[in-house]
Amino acid sequence: MAISILGISCFYHDAAAALVVDGEPVAAAQEERFTRVKHDPSFPANAILYCLEEAGIRPVDLDAVVFYDKPLLTFDRLLNSYLAVAPRGLRSWVHAMPRWLVQKLFVPRIVRDHLRTDVEVLFTKHHLSHAASAFYLSPFDDAAILTVDGVGEWATATIGVGDGRRLRLLAELWFPDSLGLVYSAFTRFCGFKVNSGEYKLMGLAPYGEPRYVDVILRELVELRDDGSLRLNTAYFDFLHSLHMTGERFARLFGGPPRAPESRLTRREMDLAASIQVVTERAMLNMVRHAHRLSGRRNLCLAGGVALNCVANGRILREGPFERLWIQPAAGDAGGALGAALLGYHGYFRQPRAASCGRDRQRGSYLGPAFSREEIAAFLNTQSYPYHDLPEDKRARTVAEFLAEGKVVGYFSGRMEYGPRALGARSILGDPRRADTQRAMNLKIKYRESFRPFAPAVLTDRVSEFFAFSGESPYMLIVAPVLESRRRPRALATSGDDLLELINQRRSDIPAVTHWDYSARLQTVDAETHPAFHEVLCAFASLTGYPVVVNTSFNVRGEPIVCTPEDAYRCFMRTEIDALFLEGFWLLKNEQPPWRETGDWRREFALD
Length: 607
What we know:
With about 600 residues, the chain is α/β, with parallel strands linked by helices. The chain has 20 helices and 21 strands. Among the domains are: about 5-140 and about 330-360, 2-Layer Sandwich (Nucleotidyltransferase, domain 5); about 370-605, DHBP synthase, CATH 3.90.870.20. The strands form 4 sheets. A 9-stranded mixed beta sheet has the order 13-21-20-14-15-19-16-18-17, with helices on both faces. Strands 3-2-1-4-5 form a 5-stranded mixed beta sheet. Helix 12 (about 310-320) links the parallel strand 11 (about 300) and strand 12 (about 325).
């Protein structure tokens, strides 16, 4: 009889649910995709319902529910941290306690009340959840495992090993010494939102000079050869305040934090470049120590810092491991999947399937799909004009539109699990146009124009454009654009005008070439997502370029779309030219006028 394990993560950020049946991921999704509240931390009621419906099982059929961390250990850390700095932490303590007294200390009751069954509720350590999500679905029979994030219970980073179904941790770094918290502190200081704006800081880094590296390493962070680090907590306020940094940190970097939405200055560019350099050094130190401790050839990565794809690129190129695999849902959402896998392999002691050379994440297409019948019913009910494309003309139609410089919202198959759009809920564009990056950022994504877009490229042709060979299916590796495809760029200015730099044509695929001639790769093969692969093949046939711009199907501050209705709403709110919904083709100029209530852009403005 099948063993069904539900994993959940919630009450911090990026709540999610994942269902594992006999060791295989059947369904997984973030709660934000259903509630439309970005990074929704609430109990994942909608995600749980989806997972059970996808698998066709009832709550009473579950063998266990596993929570992704141990709330009592986290409470112990908070209590000891507040007592250590008392009375300064009183305001933060008062802010945090209501949620603990109502939610976090009563997870079993909340789970059973929601499922209406007396299911067994288990708990696992936060970083073990991360480690399990990385190793159990990796293509390796054995591997070293590195997890790095802000904090989970007491741990901020761990090194472990996996063999078959066995997983054990060899070393831990403890709070407050945290690489993730340092990066988040700089994220907030530069005017971006913690747990959301770290991507922005990474994207800003190439425009700056790392002139603060020595100051950071002298005053804030000590990096050690064993991979550990030590923070100078005198510069950070997160121990006793609702803020990450205070006046002493501001004096060190020449003034107060940048106000959100204000003009970016040379200081922020240089701070971003500097903390990125420090992060890469720290990660490489951790990776080398993991190699020494484990003696393994393969490495698995998870935790929020594992989403730093620039650091990942350096680990792949410069690290001592032969092969690398990164959990696509590396942040807290992925903890739900890791918790379910730990329940199956650890608590129920079930064997792990032998590696077949590929990972078992299923392309991370673990979310909801919608049939053509469901989509047709939606379009017809709303009287939205559309064209029903024959199957043999779908990819060609999308490719032709892209080749004309137009932008397509692309909705196909099961929704992605994790923060990246991988061709199921994507916005696509032509990478050859110099103005694509700025136009898509400002007119469609409504976000900062400096933020780069990723290339989706055919796996078997990736080395024609990038200094990379192999696979990067989850958009988690940055690689250089080949020198033969680069174009000379003007020297960086000493001023603050990013537009002067952004609009330069840096290569023959400028829309996906960052200022430093790098690109965040997604390689696409026919097995993982056949329909998206066909679009890339059709575009290559038309243009000679097996590359398209791929960015997430959402606007700034909004989660990636989940349903056809979400997709249509985003399509009409933006300057996307056409919408592809499982073969149904909608043109903007044929749609009825869109009537919006309220200022929806203001609602999402500060994310």
